[in-house]
Design goal:
CATH superfamily of the largest domain in chain C: ATPase, nucleotide binding domain
Order of helices and strands of chain B: HHEHEHHHEHEHHHHHEHEHHHEHHEH
Largest interface: A-B, 53 and 51 residues
Largest sheet of chain C: 5 strands, mixed
Number of strands of chain B: 8
Chains: A alpha/beta, B alpha/beta, C alpha/beta
Oligomer: heterotrimer
Number of domains of chain B: 1
Number of domains of chain C: 2
CATH class of the largest domain in chain C: Alpha Beta
Helix content of chain B: 40-55%
Structural class of chain C: alpha/beta
Largest sheet of chain B: 4 strands, parallel
Low-confidence stretches of chain B: none
Distance between the termini of chain B: 63 Å
Number of helices of chain C: 8
CATH architecture of the largest domain in chain C: 2-Layer Sandwich
Number of strands of chain C: 9
Shape of chain C: globular
Chain lengths: ~350, ~425, ~260
């Protein structure tokens, strides 16, 4: 059975058990809220679809994530979901949301979530909270009332989940987890469609791979949107290179630390959002992102940073030259590779990666 | 701000620059253009427009030390800055000038040499190239003290301004305008008002000047009146034949974009309006043989404006409206001197590019009807994703609903490397054929 | 008899080169063959030819390093390294003062910054499109019905260059067609194409920076038009080896000897 089969079966079972499914586009959204509605968020990042129909709606200079997501909808392969949620991540996803909502007849409700940009003062916090209540209102119109006690429970679950993730990342950082890059990220990415308690069980299993002595391997930091094409990971495995920390939008950039002291669940979710690492899609200052990358590299004793950039991804591309210059000035080499989702790594990209590995030495 | 700097700036502004411009006008040999049978004689106002814009860029060299400088995005609430006396520079306007001078690709290449991807917005690449190299074929941009942005036109501009902020190590002040997936709500407005109010102490410090509410109200009033005048200017093109072409409005747009809120801009549109109304009374059309009326979608292809205007005029086709030029007129009605902050929030967050595609479709439908449009030319601009993504669907829907023929031109606002002359010609010729006689 | 000879094999998309050096890193022989569709066969062929020229039996080769796109297909290799590291090593051996290597091959181009000991400091490669590669010139030569080898000289003969605005190879091709139709002199169009490719390369050079002396390697180094225009941009003379295609294979052989 292929991965997509098992994913589909899982979703089918979830649906039969009475859960609602929501197709969620990248990247930032309050998952605890959805869980409290008994809604399973199914994230749409890099669906394995052949692009055909999406080209009738999108120009050639739009990234493969947006194109792949739209194709999934057009081919009817998201028939299981009961609606779509579009976080406001970038210009292309913003307009994709509008194409789907205004111009396509999917017969499913669309929900939106606008996260505040660049600002983290009181107005932004209030706005974020307001976005949460608005999303609740909209969801209640389709999926019944939210249960506040259940929301409290979901927040507890979320705390457990993130503390385990945190432990796993710490072990990865020290080289104390006996697992390849490929396997590690394959498991991590199952958070994109598993119910949180199921996911927690898988993380627990992963934690059993803990070893006492650090494994011999060179370390790098991986930055970008997501670890796709997966061949990047296997190529690094082949060369015994460990991704000791990541700055991926669907990885550690979304690490959320829900405070334990906030009694009000919406306040807890708000606090967690504003405590996340800096990110291009939130318009974080370049200096902040640079400091974060330097810290990731130094703390994990990494030899350099690999930026895996999705072609046409403006938020990431704009930050790159200054991030690389800043890293260089502190003696951290970096590499940029531009990829499209689900495409076989070209010989040229393999050469770039291997040359970088030769460059950073043993 | 030094006293001598301020004295020198004001001397140049009031006496030096006008004298110099006058001199230039005398010494410059007036080129007598042969009357072009395709077009009415150029608008007399054009000379005044050139003078205003040249003076603006010329004065920039006396600004450092005299006035605080802000680099501003085209959709930012500049009225707030005006009340603090900032000298404002619009990198987007600079980009369009570079594009019109056909220097876009060369400037972009400089930014690409510094590691900026050729897939990025070309206005941004031009501005980054200027920031990094100091080179520019158009005007002169004084170093900014602050950056002032709103993301109502795109998210891209914030990424771009972030890079400039990092380069100069200066503050970036952002008005975050939540995208209107559906109708605007009170939470959004409250958020924007709170941000605007939080900017005041920051701007007071940068400008070393106290905020004056009454002065601010006056500026809001003037901005509204100017926008209304611009809207009247555009409305003259509802007449048959239209007294102006949209290609001309692309240039007459410069003051409303970059000198909004200043008396000179208001005055300018009054004389432009007068001249256009005069033309209407006399039945003069900008295109002598106006057979068909067209609408333009998206930003201009700056290096091709002249070519396109001839190419279409030869077919007896005139562009009478554009979603682009309309953007500075469409939300003016919200401006309210008695409620400046809230009305500014609405004015700036309800613009076309911060609105969903259904809103855009309805707006275009209205323009097509009001301006009696026969055909639509859609510029798919590599640089501008929020403007371009969704165009295919809008084209399809407009054809379904109004039976209006449309053509898509692939290109870019300033980077001529993304434009294929041959491919475009073929598409346009096919479009001309579908438009019939 | 000690096995004191070393081989480098560079399997490129168009041609495959093999180089044999002795333990003092002296070049003994080299060969250039067409890659064709079977890269492992091409590697074998190139190696046998080089061995033959050096009059050495196969078993005298102590170590073989394979490089180039087809490096994975070379079964005989003891080690595989990227052509970036190999070009750096090869250029360093030929021109010890060189710190920047520009390599323009058939399918890609790269700019390499090398340190004092020949180690890799930084590098840049062209993106997916063919605009800054030999392939661009090859397509245009075919379109203009001019021999590829003649292209560079024709560019130098032209008094001026016609500006080619498109960098995309497909667009540029149609642009060239219409320039021909508009009766622009062929040599001026050709010069324009050379300006376009050099501008493209120049962007890459800028991202890495010009350090010390600069060497040009790869097949396009034989094109005098490109060399000339590039030198104008660099404001310095390029170091070019008489057989610029074999620098990668030479580097691989040098690295094998270490």
């Amino acid at each position: 059975m292929t991965t997509s089969d098992t994913r589909r079966d899982y979703l089918q079972n979830q649906k039969s058990s009475g859960r609602k499914l929501l197709g969620v586009f990248p990247a930032q959204f309050p998952r605890e809220l959805l869980w409290a509605f008994n809604i399973l968020p199914v994230e749409i990042w890099d669906p394995p679809v052949e692009i055909a129909q999406a080209n009738a709606h999108l120009q050639p200079y739009i990234c493969s994530i947006v194109r792949g997501g739209l194709e999934l909808i057009l081919q009817g392969k998201s028939s299981l979901v009961d609606g779509y949620l579009f976080p406001h991540t970038c210009d292309s996803l913003q307009n994709l949301a509008s194409i789907v909502n205004d111009h396509l007849d999917t017969g499913k409700p669309c929900f939106f979530f606008y996260h505040p940009k660049a600002v983290d003062g009181q107005p932004a916090r209030e706005f974020y909270r307001n976005q949460l209540t608005q999303l609740i209102d909209r969801l209640e119109q389709h999926f019944g009332s939210i249960n506040i006690e259940r929301l409290q429970e979901c927040i507890q679950t979320s705390r457990r989940l993130y503390s385990q993730l945190n432990e796993l990342f710490n072990l990865r950082k020290q080289g104390l987890l006996q697992i390849t890059n490929s396997d590690f990220y394959a498991t991590l990415r199952r958070s994109e469609f598993l119910w949180p308690t199921d996911y927690i069980s898988e993380l627990e299993l992963l934690l059993t791979q803990k070893c006492v002595k650090p494994l011999p391997s060179r370390a790098v930091v991986l930055s970008g949107i997501l670890p796709n094409p997966p061949e990047i990971l296997s190529l690094l495995d082949q060369h015994k290179i460990r991704i000791a920390a990541d700055d991926l939008l669907n990885g550690q950039r979304r690490m959320t630390f829900l405070p334990t002291n906030a009694n009000d669940p919406l306040e807890a979710i708000t606090d967690a959002y504003f405590a996340q690492p800096p990110c291009s899609t939130k318009d974080s200052a370049i200096a902040e992102r640079l400091k974060h990358l330097q810290k990731l590299t130094v703390d994990s004793k990494s030899k350099g940073v690999i930026f895996n950039i999705i072609k046409f991804c403006e938020p990431e591309l704009f930050d790159l030259p200054q991030l690389r210059a800043g890293l260089r000035s502190t003696g951290i080499p970096s590499l940029v590779i531009e990829t499209e989702i689900n495409q076989v790594l070209s010989g040229q990209i393999v050469t770039r990666l291997e040359a970088f590995l030769e460059m950073i030495g043993d | 701000m030094s006293l001598t700097g301020q004295l020198r700036y004001h001397f140049m502004k009031d006496i030096g620059a006008p004298a110099l411009m006058g001199l230039q006008n005398i010494t410059k040999k007036k080129r007598i253009r042969k009357p072009d049978p395709l077009f009415a004689p150029p608008l007399e106002c054009t000379a005044r427009l050139k003078e205003i814009m040249t003076r603006h860029y010329y004065l920039a060299r006396f600004v450092p030390g005299a006035k605080p400088v802000a680099w501003v995005t085209s959709g930012a609430p500049v009225e707030l800055l005006r009340s603090f006396g900032f000298y404002t520079i619009y990198p987007e306007n600079h980009g369009s000038l570079v594009g019109a001078k056909k220097q876009g690709a060369n400037m972009c290449a400089i930014a690409e040499g510094a590691g900026y991807s050729p897939d990025l917005c070309s206005y941004a690449r031009i501005d980054l190239a200027h920031t990094l190299s100091g080179k520019t074929p158009a005007g002169r941009l004084p170093k900014p003290d602050i950056l002032f942005a709103a993301n109502n036109i795109c998210q891209t501009i914030v990424y771009w301004f972030k890079a400039i902020a990092h380069h100069y190590d200066i503050p970036l002040i952002l008005l975050d305008t939540p995208f209107n997936y559906s109708a605007i709500n009170d939470g959004d407005i409250k958020y924007m008002v709170a941000q605007l109010q939080e900017m005041i102490p920051v701007l007071e410090q940068a400008a070393k000047k106290k905020f004056n509410y009454a002065e601010f109200q006056e500026i809001i009033g003037r901005a509204r009146d100017t926008s209304l005048a611009w809207s009247d200017v555009l409305a003259t093109m509802k007449n048959r034949p239209a007294p102006m072409t949209i290609f001309e409005t692309f240039f007459h747009l410069a003051p409303i974009v970059s000198l909004r809120g200043l008396p000179v801009t208001y005055d300018y549109y009054q004389i432009l309006l007068e001249e256009l109304q005069q033309r209407v009374r006399q039945g003069i059309g900008a295109v002598t043989n106006e057979r068909k009326r067209l609408m333009w979608d998206n930003i201009a292809i700056w290096y091709k404006v002249r070519d396109h205007s001839v190419q279409f005029a030869e077919q007896g086709m005139n562009f009478v409206t554009a979603t682009y030029t309309n953007a500075w007129a469409e939300t003016t009605v919200y401006m309210d001197v008695n409620n400046p902050f809230e009305s500014m929030a609405k004015t700036y967050s309800l613009v076309i590019l911060n609105n969903n595609l259904d809103y855009r479709l309805r707006l275009m439908e209205r323009l097509i009807k009001e301006y009696q449009v026969d055909g639509l030319v859609i510029h798919s601009a590599r640089s501008c994703k929020p403007y371009s993504v969704g165009q295919y669907d809008i084209k399809r829907k407009l054809r379904e609903r109004l039976g209006i023929p449309a053509v898509v031109i692939d290109g870019d606002i300033t980077d001529a490397r993304a434009y294929s002359e041959e491919q475009t010609r073929t598409r346009l010729e096919a479009f001309f054929e579908t438009m019939g006689d | 008899m000690p096995n004191d000879y070393f081989a480098g094999i560079d399997v490129g998309s168009l041609s495959t080169e093999a180089v044999i050096v002795d333990s003092n890193k002296h070049l003994l022989s080299y060969s250039i063959v067409n890659t064709g569709i079977n890269s492992s066969a091409a590697a074998e062929e190139a190696l046998s030819e080089a061995l033959q020229k050096a009059e050495l039996p196969r078993n005298r080769i102590a170590k073989i390093i394979a490089t180039g796109y087809g490096r994975a297909a070379v079964g005989a290799a003891h080690k595989r390294m990227t052509e970036i590291t190999c070009h750096a090593a090869g250029a360093q051996q030929l021109f010890p003062e060189v710190r920047t290597v520009i390599d323009i091959g058939g399918q890609d181009s790269k700019v390499i910054h090398i340190g004092q000991d020949g180690q890799l400091v930084d590098f840049a490669m062209n993106d997916k499109c063919a605009a800054g590669t030999g392939r661009f010139l090859e397509i245009m030569a075919k379109r203009l019905e001019v021999k590829l080898e003649k292209l560079g000289d024709l560019a130098l003969l032209a008094e001026k260059a016609v500006s080619i605005s498109n960098t995309c190879t497909v667009f540029a091709e149609s642009e060239v067609v219409s320039l021909v139709a508009q009766n622009h002199p062929i040599d001026e169009i050709i010069r324009g194409l050379h300006v376009a490719i050099v501008n493209r390369i120049w962007n890459q050079v800028q991202t890495v920076g010009v350090h010390g002396q600069v060497a040009l390697t790869g097949g396009v180094a034989l094109n005098r038009g490109v060399v000339n225009l590039l030198e104008e941009k660099l404001e310095q003379t390029l170091e070019i080896y008489s057989e610029p295609q074999i620098v990668g294979a030479l580097g691989a052989a040098i690295l094998a000897s270490k």
